[in-house]
Amino acid sequence: MDRSRIVFPRDTHEVTDMSGRISRRSFLRAVALGGGLGAVSAGSASAFPLDIDPLRPLMFSSPPIEPYRDRLPILPTMSGTRIDVQASSTMHSFHADLAPSPALAYSGADYLGATIEAHVDQPTTIAFRNAVTVHPFAVDVDPSLHGLSERDRTQVPTAMHLHGGVNPPQFDGHPELVFRPGEEYLHQLPNRQDAAGLWYHDHAMGVTRLNIYAGLVGLYLLRDDFDTGRADNPLGLPAGEFEVPLVLQEKMFTADGRQRIRSTPTVPQGSWEGGAVGDVGVVNGKVWPELDVARGLYRLRLVNAGSLSVWNLYFGNRMRFWVIGGDSGLLDAPVAVTRVRLSPAERVDLLVDFGALEPGSTVELCNDEPPPFQAALIGERTMPRFCRFRVGTARGFTGAPPSTLRGGPGQPELLPPIPRPQVFRDVTLSQPSDVRLPPSIMSLNNLRYSTEDIELPRQGTVEQWNIINATNDPHPVHLHLANFRVLGRQVIETLRFALATPQPPLGIRWTPSADAFTISPRAPAEPWERGFKDTVLANANSITRIIVRFPTAESLGFDPDAVFGHGSHDAHGHGAGGGPRSLQGYVWHCHILDHEDHDMMLRYRTVA
């Protein structure tokens, strides 16, 4: 079917019942009466809602969008000891052929936020203010999720989290420490950690997926005396115009150009969806943009700021490039690769030599990762590209990739050896087995967020976490506060594991060892994840093993187990009687945003 011949009129894209929600029964009956997907022809397309491809009737589709119509935006930067960050309601144009869409943004932008540059050991104060007036996805708020109510559609909660930051708990962006429109908060960030490409984003309980997707995302580049960001940096890395941050996202759009958070009509509007996918690539706020590059070496700082999908990224000509760093800083030396796999919240620091290409040529940043299992079941396809680079005639940065990044003169120290664990801890990722629409809850350890049965690692202890993914989908797992090293992964026979250790009802801890059910040797960490990390991809039906050293109050310069959150700002707290409560500690969670919101997030404390 030629999708380019379909005309998408305004506001005719859903069949609804009297409540305004789509009728799942009517829609699925229409699909069945159509005689199956193979029986649908172009001539019968009018029988379907006009933003649904008859060949994929369980998925919404964006209208046809021409790639490379827009220039890649270069994100503005901010620096200083005090930085004002305001979350606001905006309108943003994602593509030259789409009308502007309601969005959210930070720092006076109309989408995303400025890149904040800070320096190691020089504290930064973020003066955060919630100035959101209208939420683009107010109708998509699900008040049945933990901590939410009808109030959250109009009095939009926000919580700014510096992802990867090693910060006191009261400044970490705890999901229960939320701020309503008109409220302000000072985040005191010590920046006592290695130089790295961090990012800041919303983390409010139950609406993180809505706020991030709407635009509350920005980069935070932490510099030091080695990686200065200036042209004369001691590491010999490209800087200035040759260092380009790329915020990668996936989206769907309605016929009139609005962002759509739902990906399937089988989930009613206003109900949580188990994983919202996208069918177009967005980079720095533009759909499939193009960047003019000089003939030379570039440093690309990538973050997967998407809601769901893992991407296997490569260049269309399969050219070689170099990984120089990941979530929490530089590797010991550049690693030559032809692809890099990036899950939601992970970052990667790349060197790419466009000088090897002819002037006037182009090369695309592509993806060939198959969609997650459950998304593929309802018709999701691989989103194939993100952006294109057009090579000019000018000479750019002419240096070669450095041979080392650590351990030499004018370089930081080598990464330390991975320490031996003192404690072994099994944790599980699972989904209850009941089949229903909307999809059932996602869980860690088979527990809800409200549980008091939390992890209590002791400060100063080295632990091995065996992350047992007993689902058919990959899950990126993020620990706040603590960085870690990846040991590797092993495939498990999940069915035999589940039969031998039956999963109890939701709310009862389920963390059996899966070591007896492994069916592969341990595969080592990928080349791009051999430094310190804060997020790790737990593959489907596997054990992912990481080594975590939980820092002490003395090494941090603050008490990571301090009590905080008194007052009106912890209105999401669900203590006795449902009122505000004091908070303590941090959280760990899946960074698939829908999963994080319901209920794949748990609290944890580091005890002295």
TrEMBL record:
Belongs to the multicopper oxidase family. Residues 155-224, 445-543 form the Plastocyanin-like domain. One of its GO terms (molecular function) is oxidoreductase activity. It holds the Pfam family Cu-oxidase_3. Gene3D superfamilies: Cupredoxins - blue copper proteins. This is Multicopper oxidase. Coiled coil: none annotated. InterPro entries: Cu-oxidase-like_N, Cu-oxidase_C, Cu-oxidase_fam, Cupredoxin, TAT_signal, TAT_signal_bac_arc.
